[in-house]
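Colleagues,

Please find the record for the four-part complex below.
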Amino acid sequence: MPANTFGEIFRVTTFGESHGGAVGAVVDGCPPGLALSTADLQPDLDRRRPGQSEITTQRREEDVIHILSGVFEGQTTGTPILLVAHNRDARPEDYEHLKDVYRPSHADFTYEAKYGVRDWRGGGRSSARETLARVAAGAIARKLLRERLGIEIVAYVEAVGGVRAAVDTATVSAGDVEANMMRCPDAQVAAEMIALVKRLRAEGDSCGGVVGCVVRGVPVGLGEPVFDKLPALLGHALLSINAVKGFEIGSGFAGSAMRGSDHNDAFEMGADGLPRPVTNRAGGSLGGISSGADLTFRVAFKPTATIAHAQQTVTRDGEATTLAAAGRHDPCVVPRAVPIVEAMTALVLVDLHLRQAGRQA
Amino acid sequence: MPANTFGEIFRVTTFGESHGGAVGAVVDGCPPGLALSTADLQPDLDRRRPGQSEITTQRREEDVIHILSGVFEGQTTGTPILLVAHNRDARPEDYEHLKDVYRPSHADFTYEAKYGVRDWRGGGRSSARETLARVAAGAIARKLLRERLGIEIVAYVEAVGGVRAAVDTATVSAGDVEANMMRCPDAQVAAEMIALVKRLRAEGDSCGGVVGCVVRGVPVGLGEPVFDKLPALLGHALLSINAVKGFEIGSGFAGSAMRGSDHNDAFEMGADGLPRPVTNRAGGSLGGISSGADLTFRVAFKPTATIAHAQQTVTRDGEATTLAAAGRHDPCVVPRAVPIVEAMTALVLVDLHLRQAGRQA
Amino acid sequence: MPANTFGEIFRVTTFGESHGGAVGAVVDGCPPGLALSTADLQPDLDRRRPGQSEITTQRREEDVIHILSGVFEGQTTGTPILLVAHNRDARPEDYEHLKDVYRPSHADFTYEAKYGVRDWRGGGRSSARETLARVAAGAIARKLLRERLGIEIVAYVEAVGGVRAAVDTATVSAGDVEANMMRCPDAQVAAEMIALVKRLRAEGDSCGGVVGCVVRGVPVGLGEPVFDKLPALLGHALLSINAVKGFEIGSGFAGSAMRGSDHNDAFEMGADGLPRPVTNRAGGSLGGISSGADLTFRVAFKPTATIAHAQQTVTRDGEATTLAAAGRHDPCVVPRAVPIVEAMTALVLVDLHLRQAGRQA
Amino acid sequence: MPANTFGEIFRVTTFGESHGGAVGAVVDGCPPGLALSTADLQPDLDRRRPGQSEITTQRREEDVIHILSGVFEGQTTGTPILLVAHNRDARPEDYEHLKDVYRPSHADFTYEAKYGVRDWRGGGRSSARETLARVAAGAIARKLLRERLGIEIVAYVEAVGGVRAAVDTATVSAGDVEANMMRCPDAQVAAEMIALVKRLRAEGDSCGGVVGCVVRGVPVGLGEPVFDKLPALLGHALLSINAVKGFEIGSGFAGSAMRGSDHNDAFEMGADGLPRPVTNRAGGSLGGISSGADLTFRVAFKPTATIAHAQQTVTRDGEATTLAAAGRHDPCVVPRAVPIVEAMTALVLVDLHLRQAGRQA
């Protein structure tokens, strides 16, 4: 997969910088005949939108998406779909003072070293604003998965800055997740998390968190050994999101401390006449292929790098300096990351579904 | 990337089943002019080889590799390199009794559901024997990285079944790793791990573990935002290895519980005149691009699924049955996984290096 | 290469329908640091533009291109470049009568059979309006080839409806080509061609033609055996243009009637100290790799399918019917095809250049 | 598509040099459940084999192919299929004298310039011996197309050194083609061609030719606009064969001299209830998508470069010298090229078939 394209058959190519003209995506390979309008995309975009609550950045963007090709008379035609959102509340001047300095734990230095040039306006291409395009494209994938295969994807905040919720993946619903601004299905823990984030914001600090995800209704057979196993593609997709530092599926790191006799999932016959694992420590994948059990996985996000504390760094000229942020930013990214995790999951699954269809002809 | 091919420019396509005629790989896109013979590949293959110690499977394979194309007068020519190892100690008859039953936590069921047919001889293509090809191809990548860029990759066993070593990534060396059969650089903890594995084998049980890895000498600029960020490609590569359930880079999951003010890595000027992070919680990647700091990451392996305990499962005809393994297998895969982790890491880095070279023309 | 993307490293993904919202392209993989503005793209777009002369379609489109990402402070940043041109003179209502009928020698029937749906407004995606995006993207490639490698690409009309010019590939210049509206460097033959096209238009008929192309300054070594040989990629690129039915390089079809002793190109030493072919029947490629000699090739275009003559066809319901066009169209596409041929050639060469650079690291 | 791999879903990666250890291919993405043994591959390999008649090279290779993976109990499993043929009659010593000289119209100079090294044994990778792998892989594709879709591919020699046969594409059969060693379905013209080739061989000279091809039973809908149109992929595939200098589909170059009113193919309803073109000047493709009509195309091969005449050339040191071949070679490649053309055609069609299947899920 080339740098700005994801997927083999259902291919998403994103473009755009944080404070440039627009961000968006071209979706190529979407099957024809899917009913589609911007109304299908906006809800997920609104869940990702800045300024949506007290605990997110206060940048004001409506994030209105336009579909400029690939849809005719209300349905997809099988040709490339152009999705564009124009940047409205861009304030490049806010970043002039960052032109010649490398923000700690940001991509300023590495982008400049790699490309020789750097768009310093809000991080340019390295900004999480790019994930808008992923969410828009993912919403198409999600609709197709839901309507044609009955697949349901629910991500949620599991931990924030060390505060952790116990979430039952078997029962958690989208409604539970949207019930509070933290998107943590445990209301009490959510309140605790919100309080923590507000306190950190007041202190000019930030924190990280963990997003969990469950996918229900995945048919048996998705995943392409040996290199494009289901966990490998999910890992690729999720580790490509800004600030993600870890991914685990099923029992994950905890499972590595277990014994086989405790970890193995026995098989029994399911009501649908197919074998199914009695337990699901595997997280829904056997040998890299979906088993029909729910997919369950977790994604670790590091703390937001932009903080108001004074930090030691260097300028482009190699001078030591000190930097303290004063812009608009999220003290904790996980509430807005929930729809991004869902979107990337949908992109992985729709592509694997089409790859499996191509195999069987 | 298609199912059995890894990489964009340095491309490895593996083939072969556990008890078929041969396993191996075609390596396409290796730069010309690299001195290469089988002697460069054999050491890593020997580290992955079955039967190498008391704590690995007793299958006897010499794993002798042949180079049948792409090398002329002792150096690579830029044309595809065919690597082949013939299966010698194949005993398909050992698996006849597994023809009609699905082993728990194995890929038998999902392969059959996906492809409609299944090579039941030792797991066929789903066997970890396929990783032989990865190690052979990875050894080529590794040599190139070492000779042309001075990159050094050291993986090691960090945890086995809950027994955990504290490894200093700044100092751990290949010599430390190879000092014992567990490949854990802490000799005392290694002894404990070995004792545990022997005990589990005696009990007919198994366990999982964690492999850590450090890469030194990575130039600034490797990694291809937005989808082929360095952590995303490493995650993809490592999660495609059999039995892997988790991947984290730098501070990983633990970092998600931290505050930004504790987590951020300040910059200072390095001796080479380049900015460098003072600390390295990022694990060597900023914005998905290598920063020049060491890459540090961890890979979680689940317990070996094959155990001697009686387990509940079902047959291909949907009948409930009980299964207890009696074949040759590893009670814990991590000592043999060390060179596999190194090989996949090398494949990621060599490909990113060539992609970056292609950009700058 | 996926359906709407061309290139491995310098990748162009086009989108848009003839009478939809916009047409354009995302260019990913363009090296950073190239000075770029819309002024670099507009001249070639103007050469492709409808309504540019008496012998082209009278659809009025300014074809103004916008760059919405990937360029900062006047130069490319190495991130995706979004190019968009909005459709202005779209008149979908002109095509309502074609909603339920398949135009002979057009793609109406095959698109509908393939995708199940069809955008009947001016051929939708199958319209040559898509080539606007190719020309815009190709102009970027062309600038890079010219500035960094000194490569010059000159295409020209060689034949129209059987009227043929003898063009000396060694001397033909862009100025010769642009000297008349036919883009045939032989002014006298051009006049004959123009007269023919005007006569055919008056008769409601159309004709085909041949576009020749020469590329000077190509370095030795471009082309990727065995499947991405230079002639193979050029053929792919040029045969993907609407209405193209044939491609030949060097001596081409005529060469197949020759003897080896007459056809072979002897080598001599060039002034630059490199071997070079004395003659160039090979057309600049040996074994699929550029030899340093000029690339010379020819592209055959079929007659425009849209004619005013009554033609037999069938409706979507399978009824026989008769159709005569009354829309705006080109009686002969070759004058406007000249910049399209150049653009696709540039895309092939820039990509091969970057692939070769990636090899040598 | 990377250098040595062809296809998106049904992917063939070839390897091997003319006088190295082996030549062959890995076929990845072949659908499971296809009955397959070497007996399915050998007939086409025998048609391509050197030494098969008086008018081909006298190199003696049995070209026995082995299947080392991907087939279990007589059928494909959906995993990679390794095909290997060992080189037996390799005589590298025959080429020692060519080590330091560039043969005219061969790839010696360009390979060395591109890769920095060169396998001078019989052209190494640039030898047409590589096409053995294409024919073996193509035979798998062909079987699948025949058995699952009823597609029939017939290529034939249409012209040799200016001697031309008039072949009726509607009726020509594989039997007609195999009736003589020239593979020209017109027996009388074939005799003339054979006489010419024998005379040229006696004179130490060579000639080129044209291979025509018809494909029957292609379903409507194959081809992937806008860049992977059916003619574009066929052109890519066929122009990647050694010595090919031209490709045309349907009316091709001749059609470019026609008027639209003479060239257009009217539609009528077919017996199967689908629209079909009454004539077929399009050659079976409309808008880059198969129309259900026969595919018809032509491929131009240049004269064999290896001739016994003394030719002017240069050495690696830049000295002028004279060279006359004395090795084993074909005076005209087209009889052996017939199965190669068929194989590449099959690879294009099977891949497009699987891509179309993937779309519709």
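The mean pLDDT of chain A is 95.

Comments are welcome before we finalize the supplementary table.
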